[in-house]
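Feature request, filed as a ticket because there's no other form

It would be nice if the structure record came with a short human-readable summary line next to the tokens. Right now we just get the raw output. Example of a typical job, pasted below so the devs can see what we mean:
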Amino acid sequence: MSAPFDPAALTYDVNGLIPAIAQDHATGEVLMMAWMSLESLRETLATGQATYWSRSRKALWRKGESSGHVQRLVGLRIDCDADCLLLSVDQTGPACHTNRRSCFYTAVEDGEMRETMAPEV
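Raw output as currently delivered:
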């Protein structure tokens, strides 16, 4: 079954945002989670470059615009409730602002937090 995709038909929160998880298209590694607005989703689809909504800056955030660590959109999935997105991306450089490949670098094991990866040089 297929149907035209209307980004406005997704379920956004009261702030007009929807969570978006970025995953490496080749490895399946979860890289980061960010927020998208209708505008940022439309820009992502139009340009093929992941664009998010920065809640702190209250502005569009084009991933990699200052660092060069861009995310090229390879695929997009919508969850069953249409309230969360999964972006399959080709990641250039680290995805995390801490200069790590993934934002999910802290593991909880036996009640302790442990860093699982160092920042890239």
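Something like this underneath would help us a lot:
The mean pLDDT is 96.
The longest helix spans residues 38-47.
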